[in-house]
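Explain this record to help learners:
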Amino acid sequence: MTREQLYVSHAPGDLELVRELFSTVENFPIGVHIAAEEADSGRARTRLAGRIANSDLVVAVLTERSATDRWINQEIGYARAKGIPVLPLSDRDVRHGGYIDDVDGVTIDRSDLPATVFELLCQLRRELSPLGALSVPNWYVRFPCTVSDCDRPVTLEIEHEQSKLWKLHRRGRRLSADCEGCGSRYYFDPGTIGFVGRGEPDSTGGSEAGSNSRSSEGRR
C-alpha cells in the first residue's frame, strides 16, 4: 500500500525550526516532504505543485518570516483548490486567515517544542490513517539496529492513546523497543517519540505497549 504523503509549506528561513519539529514525524510510515529540502534537491519551488497535489495533508508553518513569503499563500491556495486539507502550525502571535481562517491548528510553543511536537502528532493521527485514530493505538516506528554486525530491524509498536503518552512523558518515563537479533534496547520519549538512547536489556518497568515496546523509568 502506498504511504500517505505530507507536504510541509514554510518560509526558507524557518527550515531549522521545521526540521526540529518534524524530525520524529519523518520516522513514521508516512512520506514527509519539506519544501526547502525538496527545492534544494534540484527542484525549483515552482515545480513542487506535483508534491502538493499528491499529498494527503499540507502543514503550513506560519511565523513572522512566512508573512512576507509568497510561496506559502500560493501553496495553501493550491492545496485548498485541490481539496487537500491544510493544517496551520503557527507561532502564538501569528494569526492565520484567508483559506485557513476557520481551521483549527497547532500553536508553536518555542519555549517547549516537545509539547508542540506532541500536539502536532495528535493532529496528524486525526488526519492520516496509517497513524490511527487517537483512540486506536496501532502506529509504529521501524528502524535498523545500529549495533555493528546486526542488520535486524527494530520496531517500536506504540500501543498507548495520546493522553497516556503525554502522562508518561510528564512522569519522566520512556518507551523502549528491543532488537530481536542482538537484544539491544532502544529508548524513546513518549511525548515526541524522539530517540533517547540505546542500552542493554534490563528488567525496569513492565510491558505496557506490546511485545516489542515497553515503558520504563527514564534514563540517558
